[in-house]
Write a structure and sequence with these properties.
alpha+beta; ATP_synth_F1_dsu/esu_N; 7 strands; five-stranded mixed beta barrel; single chain; membrane; globular; cell membrane; ATP synthesis; ion transport
């Protein structure tokens, strides 16, 4: 099966890089699925979104992302997020507590919702 190079990078660190067969992400224009050979595209990631990567080995990597961009070429996908966390590193109970306590802090709500969705999709 065809593969592409994928990098998932947040401002503070690189979360994952390697070969993959599929990437899906939530953009401001809707959800996008990218396979090797996809037409070039640049998309803006939603606040509190989720990115899922199917590796060349068949493993599924899921991350909560908050803002940033997705850049696609025929052979690579680069995800540049303002902040991101792998689903396996998320404390889902803490994220749910933020949802209950955040009141009208829309940014905190978006981040917490993204964290919960990432864990649910992993």
């Amino acid at each position: 099966m065809a593969e592409m190079t994928v990098e998932l990078v947040a401002v503070e660190r690189r979360l994952w890089s390697g070969s993959a067969t599929l990437v899906s992400a939530q953009t401001t224009e809707g959800e996008i699925g990218v396979m090797p050979g996809h037409e070039p595209v640049l998309g803006q990631l939603v606040e509190g979104g989720v990115v899922a990567i199917t590796t060349a080995d068949g493993e599924r990597i899921v991350a909560a992302v908050h803002g940033g961009f997705l850049s696609v070429t025929a052979k690579s996908v680069t995800i540049l997020a303002e902040s991101a966390e792998l689903a396996e590193d998320i404390d889902v109970e803490a994220a749910r507590a933020v949802l209950e306590e955040s009141g009208d802090d829309l940014e905190a709500i978006a981040v917490a919702k993204g964290r919960v969705r990432a864990v649910e999709r992993a």
